[in-house]
Amino acid sequence: MTSVSINGVRKSYGPVDVIHGVDIDIEDGEFVVLVGPSGCGKSTLLRMIAGLEEISGGQIRIGQRVVNDVSAKDRDIAMVFQSYALYPHMTVADNMAFSLKLKGLDKTERDARIAKAAEILGLTPMLKRFPKQLSGGQRQRVAMGRAIVRNPQVFLFDEPLSNLDAKLRVEMRSEIKSLQHRLKTTMIYVTHDQIEAMTMADKIVVMRDGKVEQADTPLNLYDKPANKFVAAFIGSPSMNFIEGSVRGSAFVSNDGVTLPLPSATVVSDGQKLTYGIRPEHLALGNGDGIPAVVQLVEPTGAETMVQLRIGSSVVVGVFRDRITAKEGETIHIVPDSSRVHLFGADDLRLA
Amino acid sequence: MTSVSINGVRKSYGPVDVIHGVDIDIEDGEFVVLVGPSGCGKSTLLRMIAGLEEISGGQIRIGQRVVNDVSAKDRDIAMVFQSYALYPHMTVADNMAFSLKLKGLDKTERDARIAKAAEILGLTPMLKRFPKQLSGGQRQRVAMGRAIVRNPQVFLFDEPLSNLDAKLRVEMRSEIKSLQHRLKTTMIYVTHDQIEAMTMADKIVVMRDGKVEQADTPLNLYDKPANKFVAAFIGSPSMNFIEGSVRGSAFVSNDGVTLPLPSATVVSDGQKLTYGIRPEHLALGNGDGIPAVVQLVEPTGAETMVQLRIGSSVVVGVFRDRITAKEGETIHIVPDSSRVHLFGADDLRLA
Amino acid sequence: MSDPLAIVLLLIVAGAIGIPILVYLALGAGEGMLSLMPVRAGQRLRPWVWLLLPIALAATILIFPVIVTLGTSLMDARAASYIGFENYAWAFSGSMLGIVQNNIIWLIAFPIITVVLALAAATLFDKVKYEPLAMTIVLLPTAISFTAGSVIWTQMYSFQPAGTPQIGTFNAFLGLFGMRPVPWLIQPVVNNLSLIFIAVWLQLGIATLILSSAIKNVGTEMIEAARLDGAGEWRVFFSIVLPNILPSVLVVLTTMIIAALKVFDIVYVMTNGNFGTDVIANRLYYELFAASNLGHASAIAVILLFSALPIAFINIFQFRSEARS
Amino acid sequence: MTDATVQTPATLATTGAGSSQGKWLKWLVHLVVVLFIAFWFMPILALLISSFRPQIDTASSGWWTVFARPVLTADNYLLALDQLRVGASLGTSLAIAIPSTILTVILSMIGAYALVRMKFPGRTALSLLLVALLITPPQITLVPLLRLYNAVGLSGTIPGIWLYQVGFTLPFGIFLLRGFLASIPQELYESAYLDGASELRTFVSIVLPLSRPIMASLGIMAFLWSWNDLLIPLLFMGGSGMSPPITVNLAGLVAQTTQGQGPLMAATFLSVAVPILLIISLQRYFVRGILGGAVKG
Amino acid sequence: QDANQYRDAAVAEAKRIAEGIEPGGYVEVIGQNSGAEGQTLQDVYAAFSEATGIEVRYTGTQDITAIVQSRIQAGNPPNVADIQLGEAIDLAENGQLVDLTAAFGDELTANFGEMLLETASYDGKVFGVYQGMNPFMVWYNPKSYTGPEAPQDWQAIVDWTNEQAKAGNAVWCAAQNAGAGSGFPGAQIVDNIFLKKYGPELYAQWGSGELPWTSEEVKWAFEEFGRVVMQDSHVQGGVIGALSTPISTGYTGLVTDPATCQISLWGAWVPGLIGETAVPGDNIDFFRVPASDPAFYGNELFQSAISVGFTDDAATKAFLQYIASTPAQTYLASLNRWPVANQNVSADVYPSPLLQKIASEYLSGDVQFAAGPNVLNGAATGSAYYKAIVSYMQNPGDLDNILAGIEATTE
Ligand SMILES: Nc1ncnc2c1ncn2[C@@H]1O[C@H](COP(=O)(O)OP(=O)(O)OP(=O)(O)O)[C@@H](O)[C@H]1O
Ligand SMILES: Nc1ncnc2c1ncn2[C@@H]1O[C@H](COP(=O)(O)OP(=O)(O)OP(=O)(O)O)[C@@H](O)[C@H]1O
Ligand SMILES: [Mg+2]
Ligand SMILES: [Mg+2]
């Protein structure tokens, strides 16, 4: 009923094309996360779905209805703006109450819903304040609250948690998920947080320069990125790429380092390839493995990120262990060959 | 020379006290990261350092000089605002050029610096645009650019990367670090990103409700959090806490689950304690270990977060492995007893 | 011809470029001086450095005459001897009362009509592509001098008895529907409203201009958020746009209330207060220039000044609340 | 020019209001606007048409009859051009109005900026006084100021008129601008300070450009008031060798008894030409959302 | 060519008058005439400047009262102003005007009629001179006029008016709407009615305040105005129409085809108001105002501003002397604007036959000018008078109150 389907949608600002034909199908009750580099058109796409931006080409359907010509207020969509867009002349409570008043809900019902949302968002002591009197994260939570008090057909979230601390973010994440379980509302969610994307999404859509690069379940994206761009984009730190070619059953990088290939690869000898291995799939070897020169060690507490030079390529490894090696020392690493990705000259992943 | 020292600084907005006496000492060239829950007063503190907010009490010194009465423009501080605060009537290039013009730099020098910053920030194609024609992340990068083209005594960053994607953020992070290495400028940096905090900081200051809870190096904070709050705040997902008491050489939770204690703990039998263990320090047991009921499995690609019930407590574990267990199944986990934290009834960490 | 032209050019250059540069330099010098002082002292003095010129100018052009007027309001017709509050006693008696009544009609009708129309115009114009044209047209009356305005409106309101061809536009229009012509400027009540309408015609442009620039400054995203919240155009206007431009509405309202209090030209030129349309400022003019009674005129002026105080206080509330938030 | 064209945003109504109901509404808006401006323009149209009609027709039939029987003549314009002495009078008018306008805008900005941005004891009192001064009837200022001007030798000079007009409009100007300045996000001032801008520099580089729409409004108003002011130039120019301003000549045409009103109407249109040019040329400053993209919140 | 000759004479006269006065400097003159009329005056003044080297800075404005009053109060009056006689008398009373007696010598008596001189003097001292001089008359359109030919008896007009009214023709054009001056045409009709019923003495007493506004005589004049002119069936547009019609277009009805009225009693400027459609002798002509009392048929009232000097300096006096002189006024007459006041100007000088006719009928022969409220009222009373006309037209029944109201302003 409230599926959203986007067909060949394009958008240009004057001469600048920012969306070049996007197709996405979102099922009723699905949780879709949009990711992509800054400026790739995520907010623009959300705004077009919401009806705030004229569609330069293509079609957007919500449920059965083509909504290209339906005005924003009739689409029954709640959106959290990246820039919050709070009503500065209303208190926090009034900001949240506004849409409810318009729906004609009575005061008791409104107050109950607002109290509930404020509770979830930790805004209860601030209900009487004006947006100006809030911190950045508090404002963002008000923007969030304004959306969740409603009961819309579709939720659009544009980086709704970007200004929250990690702890709060984890809480909010599970609140949003439980909201979605409860209401079964279709949600489209833009985020830059990998964990958010991976844990919340039913489907992640990876965009780049106004085009969809891949749309799939989180784990499929992680495990089988369609191309180098997606492979690099999903996962942080990014996947390491090493250029080289196949020599027999192993991969030899351009500067002569030999790396293991997954067992069941169908590649022809001599083929030019890009070898991709995620930082978390490098293990420390006990003397064996590939020698790598330590360039930078960054402990994050739980893990340690190490920048290494293998031949002339720089790769990053993330290890659970505390690395004590200093800059310039050589350590040995072992790539998990079952987790290696290979990309052809056209950047596409080899099946 | 450009050390910053904050002594007993307080701030109230009318009747609302938001900073209740903060002391922080920042050495020349130090990189200090401020973290704390949303609304704890980080932005306010930065604004006081910058001279934008009247100081209700206490003293701020930059270098040798008490700056309580020095106006913002004479402090030679660059700040990236949480809300960007771009000049809407200037192009991106002009936004960055403004401070340089005020310094009297000539056009060639200005253009060079702007080109450099734009290059780093990926803004080169947008130099001629106005802020309203940019995406959220692009705006944030302009705000960043405005700060880095200058060569101030102190940098203040208020969540400068919150709207950037993971990949870009990693790049920016290393740019900021190399900037700091090059310029040796004192930097105070607010972030909600744990990795950012851990990898960039010389010192992390954890704030809560307008007070400093702990200030130490990243690893010390991670390894030896002064209290439960800091322990929970640093690290994501948060540390797991289980209430219970000491029985002999082991810890027994309130609902009777026995957990191992670190070898060299000085606790008295029967003492009421909180047992803290980080999610990443739980390992899967091969049949042995503590039985735990799976409640929720969230794969993030690199790792899998699992919500588990041990007795009546809910704990989270983060495992490198893909967990295939379904909700309701029981698995066995092994806490790394060398990484266990114990907190007394006063929430302070036991030495 | 070249000589006066040179003078004109010189004056324009001196006034429009020279003086602003001097003002800038003076401010710069002031700021320079402030920067030599201790910060606190500088901060205390700074407002006065900035306000020096505006205050000096207002003091000379407005405050000084007002003080003189306060004095002469206690003196006789020729400002020769002190007579206490006699002029005020006169002002609150007899013929002045009917006049005050008219001002009250102005005071109620004029600001309300103007603000409502201006809000409507500013909002609607904002939605059409030919806004510049529309704006120019509502501003045109302001550009037409009053003298010419009187000619126009005499034409519009012109009246011929029923049965004869009407030259006046409004009466001719009424005639189309078989209605009797109305002596717009003569029939009591109607005539006050007719005069008020002229004032609305003249001032609407300015009110619309102010409100329009305020409306344009209301954040687009905030309005979009309201639309998503399900607000229709009316609701967006009343709940989002209006509260956000309230300061400007207050500015317009205040300006119009004050204009209603001191309305003069229209009444003077159109009816000179005949047919029961007299207003305070017209009486002031009469006392000052026709009757040469400086005392009476000054008393009227002082009463006008005091009548503006409540409006001033309302504005202060607004300023305060702006400062707070 | 460039920035205005780049910034021209979609008008609000066009976004997303495309449903059949929306279309209907859109047409309604057009209808209302067109009817409204037609009605507002009608008196001027009447004047315009009358200015091309012979006096005898104007006196005996309504202006609209021209559509049925178009008898038009440019005589009125020839007469008016002859009598207005457009050249010299226009010069005087401009010499009065241009500096008055610019000075009014600048000094109002300075005053408003200080009142909005600086906190000092007496601020409230000053604001109160400001509004109260708005009501000062111009008539009572004439004699005291003439005296003052005589004493200091300003009478009969154009700068004296600037002084008067600027001083008289200043309270309104400050009053109008302060509301706008209060709406500029605080953070913009702050980033300017941090960038090392002095108060003055912030004012010039940030506040002035951001206030362009409202300054243009004030400018238009100040110009129109100055342009149409009769009494002040007449009174304060006394004895000056310059031609009277064009509007004084224009007003004179109404009074004269030998030509009827035709030339007056023609002259009106001639004298409105300059203000219209001004209004049109300042229109481009009226853009939506000058503050757009500045801050989030 | 003729004009040049008159101009030369004026220049010569100015030279003569200004002998011994140093050239340079200027005389500031504020007058009521602007536009083409102001230009005409300035042409005459230019001759003075040419001869003497003294610049004349002339400004014409409707706001003259406010300006002159303000500048006097501010102690900065212009050198010369053309103001209403009543106002001038008030100023003379206050000693603010320059005494011109000595400057003029007996030239004045030679140039101006007795009445004019008398009104321009206060306390035996001459304080001003007249330039233009407008008498009043009954205007009609020879093509459509159906009334008695140049009647001398007011009653003839009254009877004819009534007769025409019965036939459904309103014969009068009497528009009164002149904005701030609304009602003044009516006031001048009342003045005419009064003068031609009660004679110049009583008329002068009325003007000087000796005869109260509440007197029977004044009341009668108002009522006669109401009876004869301001009846819905007598005046074009009815009373309300007359009140709302602007004077600038209100007299065109005389010459339109078909004409909408037949006569109007007003000043010499009526053809000018009508504009170029009025062709003197063809569709517009006049006869003198008939009298209720035949004894006073020869008395006429006039309308004129008076030029007064505020500064006691040679240039000012020379200028005033110049504008009063016969050559200057002859030159002014030759410019064909309006009748001039100097009685030595020959009627032939006027190019227009209409002005010639006015000049010869009024400025020579048996006409005696009389001064009453029309010229003697001060600003306050004058303004009250005009307003009273308007009120009376609306509420004829309220006449006593209305007259008492004017009387109150004379104190
Ligand atoms: N004008 C004000 N009046 C009252 N309280 C205010 C005002 N401005 C801020 N506060 C409160 O001060 C506290 C500190 O705000 P601050 O902006 O410093 O928080 P923060 O640590 O930066 O939070 P965030 O991470 O959400 O940006 C908040 O609780 C906020 O609500
Ligand atoms: N008014 C405009 N004129 C021209 N280009 C614009 C305009 N608005 C946005 N853009 C461009 O469109 C592109 C897409 O913007 P959008 O806001 O959708 O990006 P985004 O994916 O949301 O990025 P972010 O993650 O940084 O918020 C950007 O490159 C931006 O610069
Ligand atoms: Mg975005
Ligand atoms: Mg903050």
TrEMBL record, chains A, B:
Alphabetized Gene3D superfamilies for the sequence: 2.40.50.100, Nucleic acid-binding proteins, P-loop containing nucleotide triphosphate hydrolases
Superkingdom of origin organism: Bacteria
Keyword NADP tagged: no
InterPro entries per the UniProt record, alphabetical: AAA+_ATPase, ABC_transporter-like_ATP-bd, ABC_transporter-like_CS, ABC_transpr_MalK-like, ABC_transpr_MalK/UgpC-like, Mo/tungstate-bd_C_term_dom, NA-bd_OB-fold, OB_MalK-like
MF (Gene Ontology): ATP binding
Annotated ABC transporter domain residues: 4-234
Keywords for this protein: ATP-binding, Nucleotide-binding, Transport
UniProt keyword Transport present: yes
Pfam families hit by this protein: ABC_tran (PF00005), OB_MalK (PF17912)
SMART domains in the record: AAA
Record-linked SUPFAM superfamilies: MOP-like, P-loop containing nucleoside triphosphate hydrolases
Family named by the database record: Belongs to the ABC transporter superfamily.
Official protein name in the record: Sn-glycerol-3-phosphate ABC transporter ATP-binding protein UgpC
Organism: Devosia rhizoryzae
Lineage: Bacteria, Pseudomonadati, Pseudomonadota, Alphaproteobacteria, Hyphomicrobiales
Gene: ugpC
TrEMBL record, chain C:
Subcellular location: Cell membrane
Pfam families, A to Z: BPD_transp_1
InterPro entries: ABC_transporter_permease, MetI-like, MetI-like_sf
Positions of transmembrane segments: 6-27, 48-68, 104-125, 132-153, 193-215, 236-261, 294-317
Keyword hit for Cell cycle: no
Membrane-protein topology: Multi-pass membrane protein
Protein name: Sugar ABC transporter permease
Segments forming a coiled coil: none
Keywords tagged on the record: Cell membrane, Membrane, Transmembrane, Transmembrane helix, Transport
Keyword Repressor (UniProt): no
Domain ABC transmembrane type-1: 100-315
Similarity section: Belongs to the binding-protein-dependent transport system permease family.
Automatic annotation (TrEMBL), chain D:
Compartments where found: Cell membrane
Pfam families: BPD_transp_1 (PF00528)
Stretches of the chain forming a coiled coil according to its record: none
InterPro entries associated with the record: MetI-like, MetI-like_sf
Keyword Transmembrane recorded: yes
Topology within the bilayer: Multi-pass membrane protein
UniProt keyword rRNA processing present: no
Domain ABC transmembrane type-1: 90-283
Major location category of this protein: membrane
Family statement: Belongs to the binding-protein-dependent transport system permease family.
Protein's name according to its UniProt entry: Carbohydrate ABC transporter permease
Protein's organism: Devosia rhizoryzae
Organism lineage: Bacteria, Pseudomonadati, Pseudomonadota, Alphaproteobacteria, Hyphomicrobiales
